[in-house]
Amino acid sequence: MRKIPKMKVQNCNTISAFGGINFVFKYLEEGNLTHIFDKYFPQLANQSIYSWKDIIYSILSIYLCGGDCIEDLQVHLKGHFQKNPFINLPSSDTVLKRLKELSEESNQCFTKRGSVEHTYNRNSKLEELNVEILKKLGAFSKDEITLDYDNTILFTEKSDSKMTYKRNHGYQPGVCTLNEEQVLYIENRNGNSDAKSFQTDTLERIFSLLKSKGIRKADHFRADAASYQFEVINLLKEEVNNFYIGCRNSYIEKYYPQISKWESITDTANETIEIGELTINPFQQQARRNKMATQEYRLIVKRKPTSDGQLDIFTQDHYEYRAILTNNKQWSAVEIARFYNHRGNMEKQFDILKNDFGWNCMPFSKLSQNTVFLYITAICRNLYHNIIRYFSEKTKSLKANFRVKKFLFRFIILPAKWTKRSRQNYLKVYGKLHFTT
Q1: Mean pLDDT, the chain, as a whole number?
Q2: Which residues does residue 300 pair with via DSSP β-bridges, in sequence order?
């Protein structure tokens, strides 16, 4: 019978289980983000114990150290950040109080023919802060700028949340992402506001923000069928070089039989689909009503056989159709179809934000205050994009596409403690660190 080994416990309160987070803090310090925080956040009193950097680093630490709500700061993480020279860890109440101070008033509006009140909330200071941080991170330095816009549902029972079309209470924020990787803009909406309503106003605010920050015109813009509107298309043709809008309604379906040439390709799911195209002049009635000339666009159509082979009464065939409206006349139909398929990365971004950065656990009871939380955690997500990319180049066990959980287990969890010798701070690591400082 195997003997149970003896265990000797040595207590040491100063050892932290999350020693790897110190290298993250050092990387952020080298990026010199503190002056951006001080510029766009309210000025603090001289006797204030916690700076805005402490607030942002604390929220980032929650998610990089495996937490999922603000309360984890006080309950689980407080002891791991004692004597840490990079951060003075505040309590969860202090963090929530500071975030509340950043909220702005919500706005109410009505659709042209409706009587239901719609509530939306934006935060001008955090919009500018987020863009400035993205500029600092080099997000706009790529050869091409690609924007994606979509809405997502955040199910919640907050006091002011309203019923969504999925028959549960929640919010339905509109989110614009940059180059399929980082969050550019957030406009929080209540659950009863569908994605189609007031979208032109939201997009106008996005483009106005980019212009005010000196960002060049976007090369590509993608959105789903909620953006297939006369006003939205007219806005996009002026504000972006190329747009790609999903469209699926009875007006578009009448064009499908006119396509005589179909090209077969294999999609990402290894299924064979067919691609066809034709040129159309949409929104003719709306153009005449507004005394505007009609515009000619390309309609890229994808189709694949239905799983049950059932005949469609409208198209008179057994295919399932998807269409894309675009003003891109340089690319082939196949190139446009493949490029539009990358819009699916929006769902991946929503999954990351909800499950890795706390969007499923909003802390406040008001929509305006939760908008602040969404923006701050989105900024943390943007920072993480550069963090994981940087450390993946330094450490073999990491890859640039790793989610937070893998980064936590492979890098952040590292027993370490801070010691002070000769008036200097030293980080003592217990274990093998495959990373050179």
Answers
A1: 89
A2: 277, 324
Own/partner pairs for 223-226, CB < 8 Å, 24+ apart? 223/148, 223/149, 223/150, 223/343, 224/150, 224/195, 224/343, 225/249, 226/151, 226/194, 226/195, 226/196, 226/199
DSSP code at position 256: G
Paired tokens of 222: 């993608």
Tell me which DSSP letter residue 79 carries.
Answer: G
CA distance 215 to 422: 47
What's the CA gap between 146 and 190, in Å, rounded? 27
CA distances from 232 to 144, 198, 432, 436 (A): 22, 10, 55, 51
Q: Contact, 272 vs 264, CB < 8 A?
A: yes
Q: In the chain, where does the domain assigned CATH 3.90.350.10 lie? A: 119-356
Q: CA distances (Å), 81 to each of 13, 57, 90, 208, 357, in order?
A: 11, 11, 10, 41, 20
Report which residue type is found at 148.
D
- The string of pLDDT tens digits covering residues 233-272 is 999 999 999 999 998 777 788 888 888 888 888 877 777 8
CA distances from 355 to 72, 166, 176, 350 (A): 15, 20, 18, 8
Closest among 223, 186, 430 to 325, alpha carbons compared: 223
Query: Architecture of domain 119-356 in CATH?
Result: Alpha-Beta Complex (3.90)
- Mapped onto helix, strand or coil, the DSSP state of residue 338 is helix
Tokens 């935060």 correspond to 123
With beta carbons less than 8 A apart as the criterion, state whether 275 and 300 touch.
yes
* CA–CA distance, 129 with 37 (Å, rounded to integer): 8
